[in-house]
Amino acid sequence: MQDKILDFLKKKQDYISGDWISHHLGISRQALWKHIQELRDLGYDILAVPHLGYRLASSPDRLFASEIKWQLNTKFIGRKIHYFDAVSSTMDIAVELGMKGTPEGTVVLAETQTKGRGRLGRDWFSPKYKGIYLSLILRPKILPNQASILTLFSAVSVCEAIREKTGLDIKIKWPNDLLLHNHKLGGILTELNAEMDEVHFIAIGIGLNVNNDKKALVTGATSLKEYREENINRVELLQEILRKMEINYLLFQEKGSLPVIEKWQDYNVTLGRRTKILSHQKHIEGEAVDIDIDGGLLIRNDHGLIQKVMAGDVVHCR
Ligand code: BTN
In whole angstroms, what is the distance from residue 235 CA to residue 66 CA? Predict the structure, then answer.
């Protein structure tokens, strides 16, 4: 009911009579008043003027499912959204939902995570109401060893959305570090539930520093706010990320990895660099020469030998 009231208020962008809303929703004036109070408790600033009715003056800076879904216009990504004020990790919830058969495109969002996790067993610092912490469930018809490409397509989608909404020049360090002026802005973690020859689902976790103040960031990290010097609308940014994820996922399904890899190449800062990688307890060093069709990084060592790396900790040497 509250979503419907909000829908009326947002569309009208002006005063709308209480009688009209009550009539269209088939509820009493008292019931409407109660819902308006509840919306105010959530942070919606709703003005009430006798003889004019209600007007939405502002919405809270929260990633409520109803806010994200409003004019999202995607086909399946974000149709189902689970929102939490606080959670251990959105990945925990996503994996649980994935096992229970939640549909492709389900999104899990949290305002903070107490045990946010990054790649290679690291923690992901998730301060409340500052960032975007989301997990997305996809059920692609691919083999488990093709799953890396979905990390790349996610990184590309986030870059496209940030560029569109802020104009900032985001880059990708292989495989999935999102960089802004050489500092870490965000990252992507993918977890797979699969058998040898079939992927059941993949949970894609995206963490982004959005409105974090410079002094509250960990060493080596940055936020969008640091470079825009104003708060970014997290709802609009998140909606754009979901739209871009859907466009690129459909592109991948229709045309395979190549178009996604080409886009990734435009954003990457790894290719052409001398790179050191720690992968499965092994150090590999050489020039990063290309990206393979499955998302693996091709490194040419000093003897001219090319090795493919699928995961690891990457340092650019020069
Ligand atoms: C990285 O190490 O760069 C990947 C970081 C991924 C963090 C996101 S935040 C949302 C989702 N939930 C988690 O616990 N981790 C991912």
Answer: 10
CB 138 within 8 Å of CB 165: no
Phi-psi sector, 311: left (phi>0), alpha (psi -120 to 50), beta: beta
Q: Whose CA is nearest to atom 11 of ligand 1?
A: 205
Determine the pLDDT at residue 281.
Answer: 76
To test the pocket of ligand 1, the residue of 119, 124, 135 to mutate (highest count of ligand atoms within 8 Å of its CB) is 124
Q: Whose CA is nearest to atom 8 of ligand 1?
A: 207
pTM of the predicted protein model: 0.94
pLDDT band at 146 (very low <50, low <70, confident <90, very high): confident
pLDDT digits (tens, 9 = 90+) for 76-113: 999 999 999 999 999 999 999 999 999 999 999 999 99
SS3 239: helix
Residue reference for tokens 């003897």: 303
Cβ(135) – ligand 1 distance below 6 Å: yes
Amino acid at residue number 230: E
Three-state DSSP state, 88: coil
How are beta strands 81-84 and 107-110 bridged, if at all?
Answer: parallel
Ligand 1 contacts CB of residue 116 (under 6 A):
yes
Give the tens place of pLDDT for each residue, 260-288: 999 999 999 999 999 999 877 788 999 99
Q: 94 CB less than 6 Å from ligand 1?
A: no
What are the angstrom distances between the C-alpha of 165 and each of 130, 170, 237? Answer: 17, 12, 6
- For residues 144 and 150, give the distance between their C-alpha atoms in angstroms, rounded to a whole number: 11
